[in-house]
Specification:
elongated; two-stranded antiparallel sheet; Reverse transcriptase Ty1/copia-type domain-containing protein; 102 residues; RVT_2; alpha+beta
């Protein structure tokens, strides 16, 4: 039985989850998903978080460990910053750590 990590820090301690995070980062980078920019002054910056899941085959065996980097859209305020988003990753240190491991 595999445990689903509750944080990206926990996930980095397990090579199976680390590889899932690396696969997600590789996909985001290859698709040019974002562009690093300075956030505008006096704007809410939408954060991000990792979501982890295990995909199974129909026979119950593990197909793959999946990690998704998602925006914390629930931090947006309708009418203030709802239509323009600036979403850095969890922390710059996390970005550097993950990219340095590539």
């Amino acid at each position: 039985s595999h445990m689903i990590p509750s944080s990206h820090y926990q996930a980095l301690l397990d090579s199976l989850w680390w590889h899932a995070m690396q696969e997600e980062m590789d996909a985001l980078i290859s698709r040019e998903t974002w562009e690093l920019v300075d956030p505008p002054r006096h704007r809410n910056v939408v954060g991000s978080k990792w979501v982890f899941t295990i995909k199974y085959h129909s026979d119950g065996s593990v197909e793959r460990f999946k990690a998704c980097l998602v925006a914390k859209g629930y931090t947006q305020i309708y009418g203030v910053d709802f239509f323009e988003t600036f979403s850095p990753m969890d922390r710059l240190g996390s970005i550097r750590l993950i990219i340095s491991l590539v």
